[in-house]
Amino acid sequence: xxxxxxxxxxASEYTYEDRxxxxxxxxxxxxxxxxxxxxxxAAVTDANGNALADGDTVTVIKDLKVKGSSSxxxxxxxVKNIRLVEGDHDIDCKIDGIGAMKLKSQFVKKx
Length: 111
Fold this sequence. Notes:
- By secondary structure, the protein is mainly beta.
- The chain has strands spanning about 15-20, 20-25, 30, 60, 65, 70-75, 80, 85, 90-95, 100-105, 110.
- A hairpin with a 6-residue loop joins strand 8 (about 85) and strand 9 (about 90-95).
- The model is unreliable at about 35-40 (pLDDT under 50).
């Protein structure tokens, strides 16, 4: 049995060493061999670099087309009570007049 750690993403036991890191062949996750180099997940930040949290109010900084509709979220639209989620679009919210949406944090600033 190998003394290599299991993958932190998928718990696979088939990890291997590649230079100074471990690699999981099942999910493709790579992480550092050195325990002191543990990388914390980056907090979600707005366009200005301010950290965002659940319940914050943000302002849209760019006109955003709504996919599948002719609607547009205009610059300056305030969005209240956001929820942070995992994924490419990391803000889940409800916009007045449009409804539930997912936004990218790079297109908003903290109000």
